[in-house]
Specification:
By secondary structure, the protein is α+β, with helices and mostly antiparallel strands. The protein has 13 helices and 19 strands. It has a 6-stranded mixed sheet with strand order 6-2-1-7-17-16. Strands 10-11-12-13-9-14 form a 6-stranded antiparallel sheet. A 3-stranded antiparallel sheet has the order 3-5-4. It binds flavin-adenine dinucleotide (FAD).
């Protein structure tokens, strides 16, 4: 039964994309009035083409819908159980796509627009919020996405500081730790330097001899690449993070004097010999299950990355949690700036949601919108807010953006943000590992590849059980 609470002040949601639409819905169904400010069609972005809410700017796929074996499928299922509007509309307008959830983008967006417009608790204001929200908006969710309008981005930059907002993601691939061959790679920091909080053995090193290095440079040079879109090439922020293949183009030795330099490293598998070149990986999450390839931002196409990066000794069987990229993207240094309820520590009336928090993808953005809407509603109603358990896909995402990511000490220099926090899709590496059953239902020992599947299934079942308990 709905109960009307007429005197609640509205929560303001800025941005009617995937995250903002979901956040507005979560507020409205909890009887909290919401004003959804969307600047289209008054002002457009470089990627959106319509004035519909929750427009899918590129692919029409929500990726795998297999909740037991795929982390994004698990996120779908958790969101459905949390009453997600985005998932409801996706399910209503799905198209045949094998194991993936693909949607009719126009019908999907029209459904969300009509549902929100028809809700008595929702007011849609077609306007740009071109600066910090007015002081009398005491609860705000900023969900303005990768293409946040310049005026608002500028205001956020002023509030949070130069090093706290990025305009490009420079994504290096991330590898699952248990797919790295430790018979080839070894742990050592350059010159065994411990540094603040380090042990002297904080990097995983993959060695190359001369022939391997030359073949690798050739593969980088000839690999199939994507190009910058015109509006991306004109954004003056990507100078500091050259793609690895562009470095290779500058000279055959450039990489060996750059990110692949072997100095201060001795290979214990070869009697302490210094390799010709070294690829380093650095721990990426607090669980230690994910490691990123240092300095390997790239415009190589995804299939090429898998082929070329598996040429690296020690990574011949690498499983990638994320592949590299370089895109126009506005996102916060969330692990530093946001609390566990997605509020800006410096000004807690402002919450952030969606891609701007450092998640990646339609589903992940909507998922953070779902949580931000829920948290803001609970706060408005004076109820306690408990974030979802870290064993769930929803909790793992919150953990990635607000806690689980490792900030590398000393990497943030004045005016230049070089910390390694980068946007990320949901994957099982973000969820704490679980020991799978040793035997299957028929009593046979689980071996080889089946062990990996069993691990995912065990984590997925635990996630749904923990989510159910959390939803209470
Ligand atoms: C070119 C491009 C291609 C992409 N392709 C894919 C893909 O294929 N698959 C995938 O999963 N992800 C893709 N992404 C990522 C995708 O943008 C996000 O996954 C998702 O749309 C982010 O959701 P969001 O709600 O955070 O932002 P958005 O969906 O972008 O929504 C943000 C909304 O805020 C509005 N807005 C911005 N500034 C203001 C302001 N100041 N005042 C009022 N309104 C404002 C915008 O008009 C927009 O409607 C792509 C991104 C880009 C830029």
């Amino acid at each position: 039964m709905t109960h009307i609470v007429p005197d609640l002040k509205p929560v303001h949601v800025i941005g009617g994309g995937l995250a903002g639409s979901e956040a507005a819905w979560q507020l409205a169904v909890r009887d909290v009035p919401v004003v959804l400010h969307e600047m289209r069609p008054v002002r457009g972005t470089d990627a959106h083409k319509t004035d519909g809410l929750a427009e899918l700017v590129c692919s029409n796929s929500f990726r795998s819908d297999d909740w037991e074996n795929n982390a994004v499928g698990l996120l779908h299922e958790e969101m459905r159980r949390c009453g997600s509007l985005v998932m409801r509309a996706a399910d209503q307008h799905k198209l045949p796509a094998g194991g993936a959830l693909a949607v009719d983008r126009d019908a999907f967006s029209a459904e969300i627009t009509a549902t929100l417009a028809a809700h008595p608790r929702v007011t849609i204001a077609r306007e740009e919020v071109a600066g910090l929200p007015p002081a009398d908006w005491d609860s705000v969710i900023i969900a303005t996405g990768p293409l946040t309008s310049p005026a608002l981005a500028e205001a956020i930059l002023k509030l949070t500081g130069e090093a706290a907002l990025s305009f490009f993601d420079a994504i290096a691939p991330i590898v699952h730790y248990d797919s790295i061959d430790l018979g080839v790679a070894w742990k050592q920091s350059r010159y065994d330097k411990a540094g603040p909080g380090g042990t002297g053995a904080d990097y995983l090193n993959c060695p190359m001899n001369r022939e391997q290095y030359e073949a690798f440079v050739d593969a980088l040079l000839s690999g199939d690449k994507t190009s910058f879109k015109e509006w991306e090439a004109n954004t003056p922020y990507f100078d500091g993070c050259l793609p690895v293949e562009v470095m290779a183009e500058r000279g055959r030795e450039t990489l060996r004097f750059g990110p692949l330099k072997p100095v201060g490293l001795a290979n214990p598998h070869e009697g302490g010999k210094r390799p010709y070149a070294v690829i380093q990986l650095r721990q990426d999450n607090a669980l230690g299950s994910l490691w990123n390839m240092v300095g390997f931002q790239t415009k190589l196409k995804h299939a090429e990355q898998v082929r070329v990066f598996r040429m690296i000794p020690g990574l011949q069987n690498a499983e990638f949690a994320r592949l590299g990229g370089l895109h126009r993207n506005t996102f916060l240094n969330s692990p530093k700036l946001l609390d566990r309820q997605l509020r800006l520590k410096a000004d807690p009336r402002l919450r952030f949601a969606g891609q701007v928090t450092g998640v990646e993808g339609y589903v992940e953005s909507a998922a953070i919108g779902l949580l931000a809407g829920r948290f803001a509603a609970e706060e408005r109603q004076g109820r306690a807010t408990i974030p979802p358990p870290p064993t769930t896909a929803l909790g793992a995402l919150v953990n990635h953006i607000t806690g689980g990511h490792l900030l590398v000490e000393g990497e943030e220099t004045a005016g230049q943000r070089t910390g390694s926090f980068q946007p990320m899709n949901i994957n099982f590496g973000l969820i704490p590992a679980i020991e799978p059953p040793t035997h299957d239902a028929a009593g046979n020992r689980v071996k080889g590849k089946d062990k990996g599947f069993a691990k995912k299934r065990a984590a997925a079942h635990r996630a749904i059980a923990d989510l159910t308990a959390w939803l209470g």
